[in-house]
Amino acid sequence: MFGYDVFNATSLINIPGAPATTTFRDILSGVPQTTGNNKLGNNRGYTGYNGYVWSDVDGEHKNGNANHLSSMQTEKIGDFFEWNDGSDSGDHMILYPNDAFHIKGSNDTTSVYEVAFVAKPPKNWEGGWPKAYDYVVNIKKGGQSLPTACNSSSVPCFSNWVRDDANGQVKFQVKLQSASDYISIDVGRTNSSAGARDGAKGAIHAARFKTKCGTWSRSDNNEFQDQGGDRVQIRLLSVTKNEISGCTDSLANNYDSTATANTGCTFTTTAISSFAVTPTTAKVGDPLTLTWALADSKFSQVKIIHNGSDILAGTGKEQDQSSSITFTPTIVGSNSFKLEVLWNKTNAETRSQNKNVNIQSATSFIQCTDGNRTKDTNGECSDCKTGYFLDSTTGLCSQCSDPNRSKNTDGTCGDCIDRYELVADICQPIGGGNDCTDSNRETNADNSCASSCKSGYSFDSSNYCQTDSGTASTSSLPLMGILGGVGLLSILAIMA
């Protein structure tokens, strides 16, 4: 650091790769700088955090020592930081008569410089020091002087005005915030020679400060030293990386990875891929299963609202992208379930879907106990089974139980069998002719058919007894009976 006072070090703020502090002298020696038309370039061998202090710089010492900065005479840069006696200034750049300095700002940073105009002490210390103020007060923008601008809150590019007539000096701070801002000072040349030293840079021979607030400059040929001026001191106080406006949230739709100042982000909450409640019909006390799936992780909370309450709260699943829970309803009727997906981002939309489930009373289901009936999904009685009919008297599914009647396919009673007639809804033997004609059936004492078949036989669908092997015996009269009947009829006919 050349052994000068580090108290005057320059602060480097938010500059990637840069140390917290460096010095104005080191910066002018090539660290750091921007690309473009600057005379120092990268030829000084520094490959670090370029691009942050200036966009163009030049200086000249003692009017003939061949543009130290533009000639890249690094060893001569220290001449700008010495007092007249050759001692170190402590990182103040000092411009004496015949010195000139011009520096442009950078679009990347805001640089703050302290500039002091200092008058010569009087000869033999008689009559007091000349007033540097008398020169600086005529550095103007239109009708506004530089001291007035420094003391105005409406001109933030200048500040910290100090007038010290007792020591013959004034000082102030100025900001360079872009590559179009600059400080240009030439001690010892009149404005009529403006541009003679470096027309390419538009050097101002006197004093000019171009800022975002406007340009303040000396507009006459009255040189500083003609009014008792001794020197101009320039010190670089700080270099701060300018903020880049944009969205700084990586989850936003309009994220800008280069932005440093958040000027607004837009967000899209994840879509709901699916939401289901099963079953869609249940009874009180039956558990329901609620499942959901979200398209991505752009959310902060999931809710399922049932009757105004979040049934996910406290389950530990409020941040699950996909999951399921069980819930047992206690309210009869239509139950509404609302899935809400929220994102704790500014202006992020809340997504939602609704599902309804019909809950029936548990007591409305009467379990069917009739073995001859089918059952519905709730276990209640439905239609009679095939071959059975619903008996309106008993309310049960039945079949015809009259052994002397045939049965229809639906189980109802058909016609009475032969030699029986329907009496009081019961098939009874016909009067005077009640002999049983089914030889495979048991008979009563009066020779009428009994209610059961003989051993080895059972009733068929027409209520006739057939063998258990399935062969029916439907003979109505024994053969001898038939023959006897025929012989009797023949005798009667002859007698007649």
Topology (SSEs and partners):
Layout: E1 10-13, E2 21-22, H1 24-28, E3 56-60, E4 93-95, E5 99-104, E6 109-119, H2 133-136, E7 139-141, E8 144-145, H3 146-150, E9 158-164, E10 169-176, E11 182-187, E12 207-211, E13 214-218, E14 229-241, E15 245-246, E16 261-262, E17 272-278, E18 281-283, E19 288-294, E20 301-306, E21 309-310, E22 322-327, E23 333-342, E24 351-360, E25 373-375, E26 381-384, E27 389-390, E28 397-398, E29 405-407, E30 413-416, E31 420-423, E32 426-429, E33 441-443, E34 449-453, E35 457-459, E36 465-467, H4 479-495
Could you explain the architecture of this structure?
- It contains four helices and 36 strands.
- By secondary structure, it is mainly beta.
- Mean pLDDT is 81; it is low at 1-6, 33-50, 191-200 and 472-496.
- A hairpin with a 5-residue loop joins strand 35 (457-459) and strand 36.
- The protein has helices at 24-28, 133-136, 146-150, 479-495, and strands at residues 10-13, 21-22, 56-60, 93-95, 99-104, 109-119, 139-141, 144-145, 158-164, 169-176, 182-187, 207-211, 214-218, 229-241, 245-246, 261-262, 272-278, 281-283, 288-294, 301-306, 309-310, 322-327, 333-342, 351-360, 373-375, 381-384, 389-390, 397-398, 405-407, 413-416, 420-423, 426-429, 441-443, 449-453, 457-459, 465-467.
- Strands 1, 2, 4, 6, 9, 10 and 14 form a seven-stranded mixed beta sheet that branches.
- The N and C termini lie far apart (168 Å).
- The chain folds into three domains: 6-241, no CATH class; 272-363, Immunoglobulin-like (Sandwich), CATH 2.60.40; 408-496, no CATH class.
- 6% of the residues lie in helices and 35% in strands.
